[in-house]
Amino acid sequence: MQEERVKTGELAEFLRTRRARLTPEQVGLPSGERRRTPGLRRAEVAILTGISVDWYTWLEQGRDIQVSIQVLDSLSRALRMNDIERKHLFLLAAGHLPPSNQAPQNKVSRLLQDFLDRQGESPAFVVNSRWDVVAWNQAAILVFGDYEAMSARDRNSIWRLFTTNNAKRMLGDSWEANAKHRLAQFRANYANTVGDPWWGEFIEDLHQQSKEFQEWWPLHQVINVPEGEKLLNHPVVGSLRFGHLSFQAMDSVDLQVTVNIPLDTPTIERMRKLLSAVNR
Predict the structure, then answer these.
(1) What is the pTM of this model?
(2) Which phi and psi (to 5°) does residue 60 adopt?
(3) Which of 118, 148, 152, 217 is the most buried (most CB within 10 A)?
(4) Using one digit for the tens of pLDDT, what is the confidence trace for 154-195?
(5) 100: DSSP letter
(6) 3-class DSSP state for residue 157?
(7) Shortest CA distance to 38 belongs to which of 14, 19, 53, 54?
(8) Dist CA 205 CA 183 (whole Å)
(9) Is residue 164 within 8 Å of 157, Cβ to Cβ?
(10) Residues 234-254, buried b or exposed e (16+ Cβ, 10 A)?
(11) Nearest CA-CA partner of 264 in 235, 239, 227
């Protein structure tokens, strides 16, 4: 209960500060008589949002009331919130991020690409919200395949995991656990996108191409598989043992960075052998 009171209090204060920074002219309303305090009035926000003044007042008073996605979206537009502020609003009011209304990011900054390239013998790559691999380093190409030469569909890590023999061959006995884990993460992203036809088409195609996907998708499974270690059977150098670390890029929450770090000396030596063959 204490946690909920803190959250509703934060929401109330956040809405008041967003309201206070705007003028009627900025949102297309007449300024009217001189105001004693800066910003919009509660009634004006209610008009812009399409809700009652009482209901909006309850939000600013920190009352424990349920707020729909539609109302939160209306509030974010009425109060001229940017993408970061919109996400903050949803987390405070609903406890989850808002549905994505933007196309997935397909490029990374020069700084992030430089970070990938500096990982040396650690295969590193970046995926967007659809699990498309959008950036990678040379080590990732040598272990997982030449992303540059792949089609857009084949660069999707979920598609490759479920539809290619290469993924099953490299992961061996751990393929099923890894596939179920990735599927749970993919479903979480799917739940965060509303009305995007790409997802429906992609999921239907996976149903047609993978009997495992067809069997597991309706189960809505959410599992917790440790991501600390991965053993791969590389077709050229043999066994590769990695610990892998994934994190979001702070300047773009649509992107997830994964770095596979060699865990033993043989893996380091085998990765160096692969890299040296390319750099000759």
Answers:
(1) 0.71
(2) -75, -15
(3) 217
(4) 999 999 999 999 999 999 998 998 898 889 888 877 776 656
(5) B
(6) helix
(7) 19
(8) 15
(9) no
(10) beebeebbbebeeeebeebeb
(11) 239
